Amino acid sequence: MSDVIAYDMKNHAISVGAQVKYAGTHTRGKVKEIRVVGDSTWVLVDSTNLYYDPHHLELVSKEMETADKETQSLEEFRRRLDEKREMLPFLLLKASNILLPLATSMYRQ
After folding, report:
1. Who wins on pLDDT, 72 or 7?
2. Contact, 20 vs 58, CB < 8 A?
3. The pairing of beta strand 19-22 with beta strand 28-37
4. CA angle 12, 14, 17 (to 5 degrees)
5. Which of 20, 36, 57, 108 is the most exposed place for a label (fewest CB within 10 A)?
6. Taking all residues of the chain, what is their mean pLDDT, rounded to a whole number?
7. Structural element, H or E, at residue 60
């Protein structure tokens, strides 16, 4: 069934081997198979091993995929940085509860 072509949400032709992105979750993957069942066309994506309605997929280029991975990496870095910033007051308080008694005991001697 590799000669079957599906059309994405922007009416671009999708063929086996193409890189696609599912609009609902932004899941990306490579098209493994295109199957027609009755009046419906389904596209099998390798990253999830699930069939998708091609009208909910978007054809993406390798360059877009690489750029998105870099963007996701930056977004992931920012998310982790924000989590650490949120914990900073707690960590400072905890450190002061440990260090303050230690420092005062050192000055008493």
Report:
1. 7
2. yes
3. antiparallel
4. 145
5. 108
6. 82
7. strand 57-60
Read off the amino acid at residue 59. Answer: L
Asked whether 30 and 47 are in contact (CB, 8 A), the reply is yes
Helix (H) or strand (E) holding 98: helix 62-108
> Is the predicted pLDDT of residue 1 greater than 50, yes or no?
no
For 90, left (φ over 0), alpha (ψ -120 to 50), or beta? alpha
pTM: 0.57
Of 18, 8, 4, the C-alpha closest to 53 is 8
Q: Which residues, in sequence order, are CB contacts of 12 under 8 Å at separation 6+?
A: 58, 59
Residue 92 CA, distance from chain mean position? 32
| Residue 52: strand pairing partners | 43
Q: Which residue has the tokens 């590799």?
A: 2
